[in-house]
Amino acid sequence: MSTNSIVEKPELLLQASTAVKKSALWQWAALGAILLGSFGHLLIKLGVTGGAHNIGGESLVARIGHYFLQPAALAGLAIYGAGTLLWIYAVSQRNISFLYPLTALTYVTVALGGKFMFGETISAERWLGIGVVMIGVAMLQFSAKEDRS
Q1: Which of 36, 65, 94, 147 has fewest C-beta within 10 Å?
Q2: d(C-alpha 11, C-alpha 54), whole Å
Q3: DSSP assignment letter at 55
Q4: Average pLDDT over all residues of the chain
Q5: pLDDT by residue (tens digit) across 61-96?
Q6: Where are the beta strands (DSSP E) in the chain?
Q7: Which DSSP state fits 122?
Q8: Backbone dihedral angles phi then psi of residue 70, each to the nearest 5 degrees
Q9: How many C-alpha atoms does 107 have within 13 Å on its Cβ side?
Q10: pTM of structure
């Protein structure tokens, strides 16, 4: 009588390894979407603030067109778009009610980017607020075991 163990059928080990890798892919996609989205936003900010000094009393349409021609803003849009593609994959694999709270991680990454890229001052109260949101996200994730499918 066969037990179909890995000893008897080594190919089961390969199948199990492939299943684990495939099941973790949504996590990498979600993390990539969050990081690329954050970095995209920071680059858009860099592009529009860098290009703002060249704008006079132009119309709104002309100003928006000017912003779209800034290389950093274009790169930011492209990176954000790549993050959106990763997000599409992640939500195709898991419940959105489980995944969406994870996007609150952008609060941390964008705040750090604002501090280091733009020299923004981030008050202790703002960091405390971000920390509270992160605790809330962690609580949602730990309580949503049934939503992970």
Answers
A1: 65
A2: 63
A3: -
A4: 84
A5: 887 888 888 999 999 999 999 999 999 999 999 999
A6: none
A7: -
A8: -75, 125
A9: 18
A10: 0.75
